[in-house]
Amino acid sequence: MQNAHEAYDYLVMFVSISILFLVLGTGIAVFVVYYYRKRRTYVKEKEELRILFEKSLLQAQLEMQEHTLNHISGEIHDNVGQVLSLTKMQLNILGENDILSRTTLQAAKDSLGKAMKDLRDLAKGLNTDRIGHFSLIENAKDELDRLHNSQFMEVLCATTGVEHPISEEKKLITFRMIQECLQNILKHANARKIALSFAYTDTSLNITVQDDGEGFDVPAVIESSKGLGLRNIVNRASIVGGNAYITSTLSKGTTVKITIPYA
């Protein structure tokens, strides 16, 4: 009788251990399957993000080239062309007179000097690698100067903190976002003042673009066909691991805040 009882206890113990190992083995198998599924999902999402980043980078490069070429075309037509026409007229005046006027000759030389300087500046703009060779802030200041010279806007630029290095890809996309902000102001805001600030913190670069223009209804514009530029700013900030917030008040202006992490 005692042997039968012991046999029963061993049987119960054996069955219990078997069930325990079965449950444990099933749990491990489920965990392994779950892990590999999550890993495949992670790899797929990482690849999709990489492709999206490369597409955004390429798009930013193309837009930069288009923006630069449009600017150069306008400058040649409106600025350099006029200066050279004036120089030609001054030289014609000199050619029609036997006595050379020193004043007219000097004016012609000054005009040629200005045209040459403008052409050198435009030649710099043709080099799309300039974003990598110059700082983000210097390129942004160049954009502000263009707006100031062409639209008679008051422009302000401020920098705080110690500048941290940013990858060339992030720098290009960030610069394109700043350009997009400035172009939106130029086209739609009817502003008289633009303030651009760069704040370097320990972990990120915080950029603020502010104007005193007409303002608009942000949700309504973003959802409409006119909001493509604003959506591009938000999407590009997300692609480089940052974020962008747009606030606006009618008759008081618009503020765009962009945060770009260094890593």
Describe what this molecule looks like in 3D:
- Helix content is 68%, strand content 15%.
- The protein has 263 residues and is of the alpha+beta class.
- It has a five-stranded mixed sheet with strand order 1-2-3-5-4, covered by helices on one side.
- It is elongated, with a radius of gyration of 32 Å.
- The model has no long low-confidence stretch (mean pLDDT 76).
Which tags fit this structure?
Heat Shock Protein 90; 263 residues; 15% strand; alpha+beta; 7 helices; single chain; five-stranded mixed sheet; elongated
Distance N to C terminus: 74 Å
Give the CA-based shape.
elongated
Report the biggest beta sheet as strand number plus sense, adding barrel if it closes.
5 strands, mixed
What percent strand? 5-15%
Query: SSE order, as H and E?
Result: HHHHEHEEHHEE
What's the overall average pLDDT, rounded? Answer: 76
The helix content is 55-70%
Strand order of the largest sheet: 1-2-3-5-4
Gyration radius from CA atoms, angstroms: 32 Å
Oligomer: single chain
Poorly predicted regions: none
CATH topology of the domain at 135-263: Heat Shock Protein 90
What's the helix and strand layout?
Elements: H1 2-95, H2 102-126, H3 130-133, H4 136-151, E1 154-160, H5 168-189, E2 193-200, E3 204-211, H6 218-223, H7 228-239, E4 243-249, E5 253-261
Parallel strand pairs: 1-2
Antiparallel strand pairs: 2-3, 3-5, 4-5
